[in-house]
Amino acid sequence: MHSPAGRSVFREFLRTEYSEENMLFWLACEELKAEANQHVVDEKARLIYEDYVSILSPKEVSLDSRVREGINKKMQEPSAHTFDDAQLQIYTLMHRDSYPRFLSSPTYRALLLRGSSQSSSEA
């Protein structure tokens, strides 16, 4: 998650599993946390809520009721950290569920082969 290139490949994998919204939500939360302007925070929080938390969203992420209720309360006065609990829950889901499958996927194996062949040709 720290490497833009790694996130890109993982995101492609998530797309094949129909769970790309988890990565998109995580990235949107990271952007929100970096924002200092309260008006922008309000707007970004509203968009994140509509895109990923609302039960009407086609990109809704899977959150437990406790986290969802907490977000609903925090949306009264959004902050850069409104979605911290939800972001952690989605990160944990990706870490425990999607990421292990990614590591055994043909996509990841091909990436490793490309990396090792580039290292061999540079030596």
TrEMBL record:
<dbReference type="InterPro" id="IPR044926">
    <property type="entry name" value="RGS_subdomain_2"/>
</dbReference>
<dbReference type="InterPro" id="IPR016137">
    <property type="entry name" value="RGS"/>
</dbReference>
<dbReference type="Pfam" id="PF00615">
    <property type="entry name" value="RGS"/>
</dbReference>
<dbReference type="InterPro" id="IPR036305">
    <property type="entry name" value="RGS_sf"/>
</dbReference>
<keyword id="KW-0734">Signal transduction inhibitor</keyword>
<dbReference type="InterPro" id="IPR024066">
    <property type="entry name" value="RGS_subdom1/3"/>
</dbReference>
<dbReference type="GO" id="GO:0009968">
    <property type="term" value="P:negative regulation of signal transduction"/>
</dbReference>
<protein>
    <submittedName>
        <fullName>Regulator of G-protein signaling 19 isoform X4</fullName>
    </submittedName>
</protein>
<feature type="domain" description="RGS">
    <location>
        <begin position="1"/>
        <end position="112"/>
    </location>
</feature>
